[in-house]
Amino acid sequence: MSTYRYATFEVAGQLFGLEVGEVQEVLAFSEYTPVPLAPGHVGGLFNLRGQVIAALDLRVRLGEPRVDRAGPAMNVIVRTDEESVSLLVDRIGDVVELDDTAAEPVPDTLSGPARELITAAYPLADRLMLALDARAAVRGEAA
Amino acid sequence: MEDFDDVVQEFLVESYENLDQLDQDLVALERDPTARDRLASVFRTIHTIKGTSGFLAFAKLEQVTHAGESLLARLRDGAQVLDRRGADVLLRVVDIVRALLAQIERDGQEGEMDIRSVIVEVEACITGEGAPAPLPAADSAAKAESKSETEPAKSEASAPAETPAEPVADAPAAVDTPAAAPTADAAKTADAAPMEEPASRRGVADTSVRVDVELLDKLMRLVGELVLTRNQMVRATEHNGDHTLSRAAQRLNIITSELQEGVMKTRMQPISHLWSKLPRVVRDLSNSLGRQVRLELEGAETELDRSLLEAVKDPLTHLVRNAVDHGLEAPEDRVKAGKPAEGTLTLRAYHEHGHVVVEVADDGKGVDPKLIGATAVKRGLLTETQVAAMDPDDVLRLVFRPGFSTAAKVSNVSGRGVGMDVVRTNLEAIGGAVDLRSVVGKGTTWRLTIPLTLAIVQALIVESGGERYVLPQMSVRELVSVEGQTSARIEYVSGAPVCRLRGRLLPLVRLNEALGGPAERPEENGEAIYIAVLNGEGHEFGLVVDRVLTTEEVVVKPLASHLKDVGCYAGATILGDGRVSLILDVLALARNAHLGSAERAAAAAAALAEAAAALRGESRDRLLVTRVSDRRVAIPLSMVTRLEEFPVTAIERVGSREVVQYRGAILPLLRLSGLLGSWSEDVSDTVPAVVYSSGGHSVALAVDGILDIVDDTAPHGPADGDGLSGSTVIDDKVTELLDMRRAIMAADPDFDLPEYETPDYLVEAS
Question: What ipTM, to 2 d.p.?
Answer without folding.
Answer: 0.88
